[in-house]
Design goal:
Helix content: 55-70%
Main location: membrane
Strand content: under 5%
Subcellular location: Membrane
Radius of gyration: 25 Å
Strand order of the largest sheet: 1-2
GO cellular component, one term: plasma membrane
Membrane topology: Multi-pass membrane protein
CATH class: Mainly Alpha
Structural class: mainly alpha
GO biological process, one term: amino acid import across plasma membrane
Number of domains: 1
């Protein structure tokens, strides 16, 4: 155990840890989800529930996971030594990551292909004069009649709707999309090449674990901020930009009485910061034992939220310009998800002078935002395996290569002609409630089973500072309540998945829910397995498996000091008890 940290590795500096966390937390959702949620849920008024949820759930949960990882110097499975009966939550995290990283890599292969196709004098989606365009393609820079046709789309059937050149380029050329998930069709070769290239880049960056990731993030985590700043300056200087920004931030205070707005704020904070995926625990496990986790756990979520707000200005300034150029209302142009990133924003960019330059910058940013998250999630999978089976740690590079290859094979169906339907299905269901359940189990394990008092004692020993009562109240009461609220509202407001007006068959929806249940069932499944393989009466088995086993600092010397520290505290309590008697 003395050499555990050396063989496992650690960050060369605190900066590497912070940049890795920022790269992990700041992802595609900051660009394509938050701005749309903000405008839809009351503009500037949305910031009230958003910041409240950040303070009461986001930051406390982030701090808890960082403390768990740093104190134990272990990954998302073995960290449940703190409550062995709930180790299934750690296994669930690995299952979730396996499913999600497979389809997520297909998503980040789209910007790579867009980037390649942008390296020419004129963007290929500027006009309707291409081999992939149909008779329903409409150039919005044309006459007012074209805009009128586009505005009347809602009255038309899916196949009869008018589409922009960017829409047809994305669906007909990039995706070569089929008519549904039951028609996966053949592999789209350009997407497969980009998928392979993305996996090779990811493997090269994580091949030696934190030794390589810690260096790569100096570029991958910072360059998107530079691009975002450039796009912001370009955006706010465009005609019509202020109209778009006004549309984005104009507060609608009556929306604060809407439960759905608070639910969206909580869900956005939760999925933006990324607790429950194992990434935060794993990254913190490579920290120096006495690192000040408290300050880190405030800075990173605040920067993450600030980036989301900044991205909204970048997006809506360009959408305002788009509205100014076409006469199309900003409300019609404002979308979220892949539609914003791969259709609406590219369409707006195509109207700019030097449009290929802005397209290259935008898609480079999207790729880097996505690839940073992949680093951490795959490293979480690999580290978890090595922590459970430390004897194979010397073969880490081989295991990393095998993991990437297996995930690549799993991603291949996502780059077929029907792959986008599969991506949307898995993205909609696979982690929608399972990650929230993992976090609920996590806070119950720490706050109620292991005990908040004992956990606070451990954290104070580690950082050498007092843990304020605010954190204790959050971990024990407020954060579990907020997580339960998120869990309930996610189920309450859940709607059946659809894509681009196409509805999924019942069997596909069943597959989607199965991708969610396969991870969630790991939790009760492991409880049953653990109880069946323990000795004693039922209650004895439960009690024994709720007690921490081999929990404590990984380093032998540090653990010895920690054990002495606990003894001193217990003796001190004993003296006071005898005195009162």
């Amino acid at each position: 155990m003395a050499n555990g940290r050396e063989t496992r590795g650690h960050w060369a500096s605190k900066t590497e840890f912070i940049l890795s966390c920022l790269g992990y937390a700041i992802g595609l959702g900051n660009v394509w989800r938050f701005p749309y949620l903000c405008y839809r849920n009351g503009g500037g008024a949305f910031l009230v529930p958003y910041l409240v949820m950040l303070a009461l759930c986001g930051i406390p949960l982030f701090f808890l996971e960082v403390c768990l990882g740093q104190f134990s110097s272990t990954g998302c499975i073995t960290v449940f030594k703190i409550v062995p009966l709930l180790k299934g939550a750690g296994i669930a995290i690995v299952v979730i990551n396996f499913i999600c990283t497979a389809y997520y890599n297909a998503i980040i292969s789209y910007p790579l292909l867009f980037l390649w196709r942008s390296l020419q004098a004129h963007l290929p989606w500027e006009s309707c004069d291409n081999s992939w365009n149909t008779a329903r393609c409409v150039e919005l820079r044309g006459t007012g009649r074209h805009v009128e046709l586009f505005l009347n789309n809602s009255a038309l059937g899916v196949s009869e709707r008018y589409r922009t050149p960017a829409d047809e380029f994305f669906h007909n050329e990039i995706l070569q999309i089929s008519d549904g998930i039951d028609q996966l069709g053949g592999i789209v070769r350009p997407l497969l090449v980009c998928d392979v290239l993305a996996w090779l880049i990811i493997f090269c960056c994580i091949a030696k674990g934190v030794q390589t990731v810690g260096k790569v993030v100096y570029f991958t985590a910072t360059f998107p901020f530079l691009i975002l700043a450039v796009l912001l300056v370009r955006g706010v200087t465009l005609p019509g930009a202020l109209d778009g920004i006004r549309f984005y931030i104009m507060p609608q205070w009556d929306q604060l009485l809407n439960l759905r707005v608070w639910a969206d704020a909580a869900i956005q904070i939760f999925f933006s910061l990324g607790p429950g995926w194992g990434g935060i625990v794993n990254m913190a496990s490579y920290n120096r034992f006495q690192n000040d986790t408290k300050l880190d756990s405030i800075i990173i979520p605040v920067v993450n939220c600030g980036t989301s707000i900044l991205a909204g200005f970048v997006v809506f300034s360009v959408l305002g310009y788009f509205s100014h150029q076409t006469g199309l209302p900003v409300a019609t142009a404002a979308t979220g998800g892949p539609g914003l990133a791969f259709i609406t924003y590219p369409e707006a960019i195509s109207m700019l002078p030097l449009s290929p330059l802005w397209a290259c910058l935008f898609f480079s940013m999207l790729f880097l935002l996505g690839v940073d998250s992949m680093f951490v999630q795959i490293e979480a999978i690999v580290s978890s395996v090595l922590d459970v089976f430390p004897s194979v740690r010397s073969s880490k590079m081989l295991i990393t290569a095998g993991t990437c290859f297996l995930l690549f094979l799993m991603s291949v169906p996502c780059v077929t002609r029907g792959g986008m339907y599969l991506v949307q299905l898995l993205d909609w269901y696979s982690a929608s409630i399972s990650v929230i359940l993992v976090c609920i189990v996590e806070v119950i394990a720490v706050g109620w089973i292991y005990g908040c008092e004992r956990f606070v004692r451990d954290v104070q020993f580690m950082i050498g500072r007092k843990v304020e009562r605010f954190w204790i109240v959050c971990w024990k009461f407020i954060t579990p309540v907020v997580l339960t609220f998120i869990f309930g509202t996610t189920i309450l407001y859940n709607t059946e998945v659809s894509y681009n007006g196409w509805t999924y068959p019942r069997w596909a929806i069943g597959v989607g829910w199965a991708s969610c249940l396969v991870s969630m069932l790991c939790i009760p499944g492991f409880v049953i397995y653990k109880l069946l393989n323990s000795k004693g009466s039922f209650m004895e088995r439960v009690k024994d498996n709720l007690k921490p086993q081999d929990w404590g600092p990984a380093d032998t010397n540090t653990r010895a000091v920690w054990n002495d520290h606990i003894e001193c505290i217990q003796k001190g309590l004993g003296v006071r008890e005898r005195t009162t008697k």
